[in-house]
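Hey, sorry for the delay on this. The queue was backed up all week. Below are the sequences that define the complex (chains, strands and the ligand SMILES where applicable).
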Amino acid sequence: MSTAAMDVEARNAGRDTRCRLCLKKIEIAQTAGIDLLENQDINRLLLDVYRVEVLQTDEGPTMICVPCYSLLVHYYKLRIRCLSLRKNFRLNQSVLLAQINAFRGKN
Ligand SMILES: [Zn+2]
């Protein structure tokens, strides 16, 4: 094992450096992983998208790797888009129903 790798190992000693989502080991935590406890906005995204809550007292891993972060952002955008489309669909439906009722009322 190289000295650099040993340094990383020492820094992460006692910490669970696996990704919370894919459970792959995050080798260099400082560059390749995001600590959810230090990034509450990302933590909230995780809760919004996957219903996974990471607490300060969490005994499981509290990091996510960059590929999982990218996927999380992707699914978050998709979710926002779906919610917005659903809202538009409902609005169009109620406008259509109102028009049908108004038309019926005339005859
Ligand atoms: Zn991951």
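The CA atoms of residues 23 and 42 lie 18 Å apart.

I'll add it to the shared folder too.

S.
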